[in-house]
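Subject: Prophage terminase small subunit

B.,
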Amino acid sequence: MAKPDWEAIETAYRAGVMSLREIASHHGISEGAIRKRAKRDDWSRDLNARIQQKADDLVRKQEVRKTVRTKTELTERVLIEATAEVIASVRMEHRGDIRRARELTNTLFDELGAQCADVGALEQLGNIMFDPDDKGRDRLNETYQKVISLPSRVKSLKDLSDSLKTLIGLEREAWSIGTTSEPEKTPLPGKNTDLTTDQAAELYKKMMS
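Prediction pasted inline below.
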């Protein structure tokens, strides 16, 4: 049996890209043997910055090869154009995902608005469905009443507002709107969406009025 290539094993270990299991499998030795050698020779994984830089460069070149499909030498112009196409494709996908997420959030807002518009009917429905057990309790109805309660609606409003705030921020980033060195907060029109429970309750009261 050939002796392990400890120099190659050490290089892979220090790089920190492959797991111990992958290194061991690749070189036909055990993970324990690698750990023992690393401990004996005081190996450490300290090349992450250089590896990341090299990996980024390789990724760009690989994406260019897929786009250009040519054996000619990669020029700076081709590299820039092809990389820009890849980035643009990713950003367009992000825009579509964010748009769908916003549409879903707005749909949930509509559902919450419908619930808030006729709380009395929901409470009446709960009374109609009330079916106590022999101990006088209706656990299902208790859960229903909790769901339609004011605290639950306030929490839903706060959660949806936070979600919308996040999505608006992501959408502005995807469209490069108001890009600055500092992350920009994007509140709802006329409202700050960093809501406390009391603020959410106040906003809910205004929606109901």
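Residues 1-46 form one domain.

T.
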